[in-house]
Amino acid sequence: PLVDFETRPSYILTIQAKDGAVTNPLKSYATVAITIIDVQDQPPVFINAPYSASIPENTPEGTVVLSINATDGDTGSPRPIVLTLENEPMGHFKLRFIGNPRAGIAELVTTDRPLDREDPKITKNGGAYTFSVRATELINNEVPGDSTSSQITIVLTDVDDHIPVFNKPSFEVSIPENLEHDTPLPDLAIIVTDMDLGANSRYTLSLRTFTTPKVCLPWYQRMVKDEHPSYVKVVDSSKLDYDVPDGDMR
């Protein structure tokens, strides 16, 4: 096999010289020290790659998400390393270099374009946002040389940032006064949508104000997490009387 500086940078050999005597030949020894000279034949190497982190959606600008470190694979005479982000056209993240920008060390920080967990592309990908970071060697400190890339995966957690929305701003329904007990009010289907995910998408339905007490209550369980219609039903039909003296109670 070929000698490789990155595998073994030096060798020590012992050489023996022996004369031609038939009996008791004389011998001497010499030591040879061999130093392997490094040749640029290795691409950059990322430390602790691939990279991943979990952050809440709408994380503020300037938040440090993770650290990135890359070095020249040729350790004998390492070249400068430049880091760049790839496949991140929306600009949600940027690199903030630590010290010399050609040292291959940087922090990944958020920009003024926060990520939205409810973004269809992110939701389709299970809440993960992926892109890449590339490390490029510089020949003579300016000409791009060998390069390598590593994937970055950012997992977004949901934040309760969407209010529940009714399918209509107001509802109006007319019912007969003889509507039976436990009967849902006709033509009244209430649908509520909450764009958040998981526990943050659940909402409570309750009747806040009505003039005749103990007449109507939500039909289904109060805690809901999907867009199935909720109904209102009569719980005390004796209170439904059109002929009451007070017109406001009708």
Note down, in words, how this protein is organized.
This protein has 250 residues and is an all-beta fold. It has one helix at 120-124, and strands spanning 10-18, 27-35, 45-46, 51-56, 64-71, 81-86, 93-97, 105-110, 128-139, 143-157, 165-166, 192-193, 203-204, 216-218, 223-224, 232-234. The strands form six sheets. The protein has a four-stranded antiparallel β-sheet with strand order 3-5-8-7, with no helix packed on it. It has a four-stranded mixed β-sheet with strand order 4-10-9-6, with no helix packed on it. A two-stranded antiparallel ribbon has the order 1-2. Mean pLDDT is 83; it is low at 213-223. Pfam families: Cadherin. One of its GO terms (cellular component) is plasma membrane. InterPro entries: Cadherin-like_dom, Cadherin-like_sf.
